[in-house]
Specification:
Chain B: InterPro entries: ABC_BtuC-like, ABC_transptr_permease_BtuC. Chain B: It is found in: Cell membrane. Chain B: Its main location: membrane. Chain B: It comes from Micrococcus terreus. The complex is a heterodimer of chains A (about 350) and B (about 375). Chain A has about 350 residues and is mostly helical. Chain A has one domain (about 5-340): ABC transporter involved in vitamin B12 uptake, BtuC. Helix content of chain A is about 75%, strand content about 0%. In chain A, helix 3 runs parallel beside helix 9 (about 205-230), helix 3 runs antiparallel to helix 11 (about 245-270) and helix 4 (about 100-115) runs parallel beside helix 6. Chain B has one domain: ABC transporter involved in vitamin B12 uptake, BtuC (Orthogonal Bundle). Chain B is built from 15 helices and no strands. Chain B is globular, with a radius of gyration of 22 Å. Chain B starts with a helix and ends in a 6-residue tail after the last helix. The chains are: A mainly alpha (about 350), B mainly alpha (about 375). At the A-B interface, helix 5, helix 6 and helix 14 of A face helix 8, helix 9 and helix 15 of B.
Chain lengths: ~350, ~375
């Protein structure tokens, strides 16, 4: 393939979702209980309203939708990239923070911290979330590694099935403990009843703004490690022979996956299957490099969650379907198709 | 099996046949000993649940209440025993037995210690179906129980269908080949089940958020599993289902014993592991769904009662032992959840979930099922 066409394809891989994302955000800001026409929406965003009463209501409607849309973009980007990083670093096609129990660990840590009296501001919450994700990741990886060693009699990376089973056990246990905390400390944790499903309904712009740099750094680290991901997919020995440093790459990737998961959970609770769906869907279009794939995961992940939020608000208005539910309903069939196509060898 | 290997060789004088006969008798003696022990434990546990705790009842008073007499100076005792403590104990025992039996059936059919109705999404599917008919049509009572049964069966069928190797991949797909046998022999159904379980949980959670602004108690029942909302009516449905299905399940469980040797050998011995296994999974799914309709999804009970029962019987699979183990687990868990924290009542499923997760991780680490 000529170099020019390669660049063109890679540019399309990033530009198409960028345009879709912008259109999606515009739609998400314009549509809802009070639909605002796109021109007015843009005017409100650019600060050019003329102050009439109807426009005031329109402006209020648009502005009220900004926090949840921004949060959906951030969480979607974080989770899409987390999926790509986890799948590459563990060489496990079922890499997804919720399937592997990481989101549930973060959720439990945050709930436990708040119940013990940690102030409910963002910095302690993100600290708790990182700690919970890290503990869950270590436990899942250690248990799955032991299970794989028992099965194969050799060392090596844990297989997908044992990782997912360990993740399921961690998820069930952490969810049970979180429910116990919700029952025991109803006053402190009442607002988390929504959050435990995975939702952007009650987010603030300040939280999103505070976490945005963290998420961007996490994504950047994964982007920088992307060439190492290609080498990792060949196995550690070959990767070493190619001049990559598999251990360092893996630590960096898993570290950013932990931080990105924790940030996503701190903002929106456990939103499942985004990290599974987006990278697998994009690989079908054969990205030319892993770096392009990671960019694509960030953008399409954001598109997915903005669309899920918009869909959830429109379909059952005035009620809403939380994004955590929509992504699971979308993601489970995708996982089942992956299993049938033997894209996942167990 | 392991008993044979561990028993030291006898001194001369006994023939091999006598040794085998002796070992079999010993294993049967151990099984009956375990069954009696578990039954005694269950009765004791139910006794503790009914008589002790936040409101203590004397044994003579309990029988007097059962006989319909009034207790002098304690007018509320009759209500507390008959409408609160006794139904919880009975429902816990029945649901635990149904879940334990269901776990034993799944375990034996799928020949995998991690294959159980709660891992495969059967209980979550039953709960989702029950919640959906409640939320969509306001259906309660018998209709809800029937919906749960249909939901449990549908999830089992869906997970098996998805796990059947496709025509293109036959031959390369696992040791057992294509079709149903392929689905039963492979491991894909576990991942498919975990995914379906997540789907069921999401459905329940969203329905609950929409429904339960004012009814957290009901939400706890369907999200975590709880005995707080148990009524004699629900117990009635569960008791009828269990009375019909437990004997059938026990018969199927026994008929599946050749399949412990692997499906090829079992076929050679003249059994039809495919058909019997399908029946066993159906009965197991119905038992788990019936329990879920009464108490909500009680995490890990079905998964853990079978390995615990096998540990007690010395490795011999037994459906009654698993059922009794499940019943003991749920009765004790319900007592602890209701009484351990003083004034606060935790949903019973929270306790089984929190205690069961480390046990499942341990099970996962020591299993030699070729889980890669």
């Amino acid at each position: 393939m000529p170099a020019g066409r390669q660049t063109g394809r890679s540019a399309a891989f990033v530009l198409v979702p960028l345009v879709v994302l912008m259109l999606g955000c515009l739609a998400a800001l314009a549509l809802g209980a009070r639909a605002v026409d796109p021109a007015t929406t843009l005017q409100v965003l650019l600060g050019g309203t003329d102050g009439s009463a109807a426009e005031g209501i329109d402006a209020a409607a648009v502005l009220s939708r900004i926090p949840r849309t921004v949060t959906a973009v951030l969480v979607g980007a974080a989770l899409g990239v987390t999926g790509a990083a986890l799948q590459g670093a563990t060489r496990n096609p079922l890499g997804d923070p919720s399937l592997l129990g990481l989101s549930a660990g973060a959720m439990l840590a945050v709930a436990a911290g708040l119940a013990l009296g940690v102030p409910a501001t963002l910095v302690p919450i993100i600290g708790l979330a990182v700690a919970g994700t890290l503990v869950a990741a270590v436990v899942v990886y250690a248990v799955a590694g032991t299970a794989s060693r028992m099965a194969t009699g050799t060392g090596g990376a844990p297989g997908p099935l044992s990782l997912v089973l360990a993740g399921a056990a961690i998820t069930a246990g952490c969810t049970a403990l979180t429910t116990a905390l919700l029952v025991l400390f109803p006053a402190v944790l009442d607002r988390f009843r929504f959050w435990t499903v995975g939702s952007v309904a009650r987010t603030s712009l300040e939280d999103a703004a505070l976490l945005a740099p963290l998420i961007l750094v996490g994504i950047l680290v994964v982007v920088l490690c992307a060439p190492g991901l290609d080498a990792l997919s060949l196995g550690d020995e070959l990767a070493h022979g190619l001049g990559a440093r598999p251990v360092r790459t893996r630590v960096l990737l898993l570290g950013s996956a932990v931080v990105l998961t924790a940030a996503a959970v701190a903002l929106a609770g456990p939103v499942g299957f985004v990290g599974l769906m987006v990278p697998h869907a994009l690989r079908r279009f054969h990205p030319l490099s892993t770096r392009v794939l990671v960019f694509g995961c960030a953008l399409w992940g954001a598109v997915l969650l903005v669309a899920a939020d918009l869909f959830g608000r429109l379909v059952v208005a005035p009620q809403e379907i939380h994004i955590g539910v929509t992504t699971v309903v979308l993601g489970v069939p995708v996982l089942l198709v992956l299993l049938r196509r033997k894209a996942v060898s167990l | 099996m392991s008993a044979v290997l561990e028993t030291p060789r006898r001194a001369g004088g006994t023939t091999a046949l006598e040794t085998v006969r002796d070992l079999r008798a010993r294993s049967t003696r151990r099984l009956s000993f375990v069954l009696v022990g578990l039954a005694v434990l269950l009765v004791l546990g139910m006794g503790v649940r009914v008589l002790l705790g936040g409101y203590t009842v004397a044994i003579p008073d309990f029988f007097a209440i059962l006989a319909g007499e009034r207790i002098e100076g304690a007018a509320g005792a009759r209500f507390i025993v008959l409408q609160e403590k006794l139904p919880r104990a009975v429902a816990a025992a029945l649901a635990g037995a149904a879940l334990g039996a269901s776990g034993a059936l799944f375990r034996r059919t799928l020949r995998n210690p991690l294959a159980s109705p709660d891992i495969l999404g059967v209980t979550q599917g039953a709960a989702a179906a029950a919640v959906l008919v409640l939320a969509a049509g306001g259906v309660r009572g018998a209709g809800m129980a029937v919906a749960a049964l249909i939901g449990g069966l549908a999830v089992t069928a869906a997970v098996l269908l998805v796990s059947m190797p496709g025509r293109s991949s036959r031959g390369s797909g696992g040791p057992a080949g294509g079709g149903l046998a392929g689905a039963l022999g492979g491991q894909r159904f576990i991942v498919a089940g975990i995914a379906v379980a997540a789907l069921g949980q999401a459905v329940v959670a969203s329905a609950m958020l929409a429904l339960s602004q004012h009814d957290l108690q009901a939400a706890a029942v369907w999200t975590a599993g709880s005995l707080n909302a148990v009524t004699w009516e629900r117990i009635g449905y569960l008791a009828v289902t269990a009375a019909v299905l437990l004997p059938v399940g026990a018969a199927l469980h026994a008929a599946l014993s050749p399949s412990d040797l692997g499906s090829d050998l079992a076929h050679g011995l003249g059994s039809r592991p495919g058909r019997t296994g399908l029946g066993a999974l159906g009965v197991g799914a119905l038992l788990a769904a019936a329990a879920t309709a009464a108490t909500g999804p009680l995490a890990f009970v079905a998964l853990l009662s079978t390995p615990i029962a096998r540990g007690l019987t010395g490795g011999r699979p037994s459906l009654p032992a698993a059922a009794l183990t499940g019943a003991v687990i749920v009765v004790l868990a319900d007592f602890l959840a209701a009484e351990a924290l003083g004034g606060v009542r935790l949903p019973t499923g929270v306790l089984t979930g929190a205690a069961g997760a480390p046990l499942m991780l341990w099970l996962l680490m020591r299993t030699r099922m070729g889980v890669r």
